[in-house]
């Protein structure tokens, strides 16, 4: 039951973290009204994943290995592209908020709002199918006629519930960060999390044989950080840290995280009025 | 309004999946009739119901009878190139790996604890016998 619990926890964290940070970002920049779009994206991803997973579990057809890896990989990389765009979009609009005309802001919020549905859908949906297939397998084990056992299903569900509770705690924690530091900190964390998702997507494509170098490991610390341990689970769930990382994953992670962080920090710390603009964001923007 | 829309989107997606050849039916395509192989993974053993099959679509039905989460791999004969893999098989779960294979030698591996080289065995895929 504990092993299934950890799988549920890991998959749940992988899905929830980006959503949690984006939501805190929206609330802090006075766009609480747009939160509903995040929920639409999340709900859409959950429903599509569960339905598709059920179809592929009980229906006559199964997803081939290559297709599943390719879907996971491509959606992960797409999620990173959207999240990166979103971080910069929100950072620039947080800065210029006080100077901008209300009408222009609303137009931008509309455009970003559609993007919000997509980014939330991708953040949850990228590994949603794998999670759904795992959950339905646990359901099958519980419903099976011979030697049925509910322990795996209970473990998996408790794991997912824990990840939701942790996501909520992260959300509350992020909202407590001092407003002048908030956008910098959450932006930095989001970029590091996104880097992990990108590396994960690369690994999926390596497994599918679309990208090379699956067996060229940059490092392997599986002995020190076993993937089946609770700390291995947390590192994987939060940062997508893989104890056995390939060279291609390590290189792409670095090529993404380092320049993006530099650009972002420069962007948010532009001289003079920039930081003051962030601090003056009106919190209850009732638009 | 929402339900028919969703049903439409879902069936459209399911159709796309099969039309693009992303899915395979579980009924064996090969005439050999051994399209489905059951695998039992424990902490120290990886037992397959058959070590030979004829080419086409194979389904490995992997049951985790150990206490740790496990993974199942099908490698090419070099033991490096991954032909197929199924992960997140928690204790007590059964998950399927569906792969298209051509005739040749392969290596199977169960990885209890999700680390290392795994418990390996050789696996042979033969040309279907023509009558």
Automatic annotation (TrEMBL), chain A:
Source organism, top-level taxon: Bacteria
Membrane-topology annotation of the record: Multi-pass membrane protein
TM region positions: 38-58, 70-91, 103-125, 145-170, 182-202, 244-265
Pfam family, one: FTR1
GO terms under cellular component: high-affinity iron permease complex
Keyword Transmembrane applies: yes
InterPro entries, per the entry: FTR1/Fip1/EfeU
Span of the signal peptide: none
A GO MF term: ferrous iron transmembrane transporter activity
Coiled-coil segments on the chain, per record: none
Stated name of the protein: High-affinity Fe2+/Pb2+ permease
Source species: Tessaracoccus antarcticus
UniProtKB/TrEMBL annotation, chain B:
Keywords for this protein: Signal
UniProt key word Signal: yes
Top-level taxon: Bacteria
Limits of the EfeO-type cupredoxin-like domain: 27-114
Signal peptide as annotated in the record: 1-19
UniProt-listed InterPro entries: EfeO_Cupredoxin
One protein family per Pfam: Cupredoxin_1
Protein name as annotated: EfeO-type cupredoxin-like domain-containing protein
Species of provenance: Tessaracoccus antarcticus
Upper classification of the organism: Bacteria, Bacillati, Actinomycetota, Actinomycetes, Propionibacteriales
